[in-house]
Amino acid sequence: xxxxxxxxxxxxxxxxxxxxxxxxxxxxxxxxxxxxxxxxxxxxxxxxxxxxxxxxxxxxxxxxxxxxxxxxxxxxxxxxxxxxxxxxxxxxxxxxxxxxxxxxxxxxxxxxxxxxxxxxxxxxxxxxxxxxxxxxxxxxxxxxxxxxxxxxxxxxxxxxxxxxxxxxxxxxxxxxxxxxxxxxxxxxxxxxxxxxxxxxxxxxxxxxxxxxxxxxxxxxxxxxxxxxxxxxxxxxxxxxxxxxxxxxxxxxxxxxxxxxxxxxxxxxxxxxxxxxxxxxxxxxxxxxxxxxxxxxxxxxxxxxxxxxxxxxxxxxxxxxxxxxxxxxxxxxxxxxxxxxxxxxxxxxxx
Length: 350
Description:
Largest sheet: 7 strands, mixed
Oligomer: single chain
Strand order of the largest sheet: 2-3-4-11-5-6-7
């Protein structure tokens, strides 16, 4: 039977754990909210599953729980920050708000961030800006590690490098969060721990042969994650991965060419305000037309009706707010054990 937990109690637990580990209360509040949002949307490899490694990062100095980012450069619509290894979710929230304000005034705003802490689930940031009538684009990479080979190669060069985007349609939010590899490091590690294989080839072994075996990723020499598009069209995902490298490490000025700054992220946060382009009403009308066209499209025989990106996640979020958050079976025992060690009670299941 799946255990479910109250959203508010999970947030309170995470917040208390982070504060005890030395994170400032305002930052702990945001990080807890973002991690739980990941689970609410169904991204359970990037929700509270990250609480233990975040705590470890705070303990070993790989994440800083207090302070402010360093402003490296500034124009009316662009800022570049040294994130100073501060919590990634808090940095993204701050950057999104700054970019949103700039977009209101000038049509767009962007914040490039180097040396950020890990940012969790990208989808967790989208709805908040979309509900303001703006469009948020978020690009992320981790210069300290690598798991994806360039197309035609067999050795790791870059990370899954997700792209996320969110905007309103007049009736709801469209939200996408897509890695430029078929799967992620976290899902590969989970499959290996469970002793399960992927339903289709999602990795390359060290010789460049496609495989569904997650153990290939952890072999020596190591395998790699297949780029988005797989064996037949992975050149497209690999190209997009290189683009994300330019938009994150390239624009922020610190990346793979430099000494490792430890587990974290290089980021670009970009907000566009339709009111400063063709107009908010025109944008809403066009996006609503597309939403209607998607929903009215005949499904394939025996298949589900077409849906917009993010609809399943938002439906899952609404259900879990009513029924309780269903954590992946591997997560609650880890959180409970960390809570007992810290003297913070983990919530009882509903």
